[in-house]
Amino acid sequence: MATGTPPLVGTIVGTDLTVDNAGEVRDFYAAVIGWEFEPLTVEDHDDYVMKTPGGEWVTGICLRLGPNADLPPQWLVYVAVADLEQSIARCLELGGNAITPVKDLEEGRSYVVVQDPAGAVLAFSGPGPK
Questions:
Q1: What domains, with CATH codes, occur in the chain?
Q2: Least packed by Cβ within 10 Å: which of 7, 43, 112, 113?
Q3: CA-CA distance, 34 to 43, in Å (whole number)?
Q4: Phi and psi of 55, rounded to 5°?
Q5: Of the candidates 71, 73, 74, 19, which has an alpha carbon nearest to the alpha carbon of residue 47?
Q6: What is the pLDDT of residue 2?
Q7: Tens of pLDDT along 86-102?
Q8: How far apart are CA 92 and CA 72, in angstroms?
Q9: CA atoms of 123 and 97, how far apart (whole Å)
Q10: CB–CB of 113/123 below 8 Å?
Q11: CA 41 to each of CA 6, 48, 62, 89, 116: distance values in angstroms, whole numbers, following the listed order
């Protein structure tokens, strides 16, 4: 995606795995899938950008610290929405829950982790606060 171009609404725009033992899990996926990794410094620790052997970004493996301390220890899928506040409101109206506050992502975008009425977890990614 070109810088400044908003992602297509409804598309998966990223995935992350947030765990207490990111280094061990990073090494596990590197060994069983063949992913390579690059450290990404967040506050006072490193998270990891996981890449194909050709260098293409695949996912992130993050420590449950700092801004990620309240994320569930599972693969988290981020889906683009047109209006983050509106999507959160509809989620709540339809029996879902917001399980994190809205957080800044990058390039003027924010995200929130929600839970649907069945208990499944997903993140909405949308334009940041206006």
A1: 11-71 (3.10.180.10), 81-130 (3.10.180.10)
A2: 43
A3: 28
A4: 95, 5
A5: 19
A6: 41
A7: 999 999 999 999 999 99
A8: 19
A9: 11
A10: yes
A11: 25, 8, 10, 33, 32
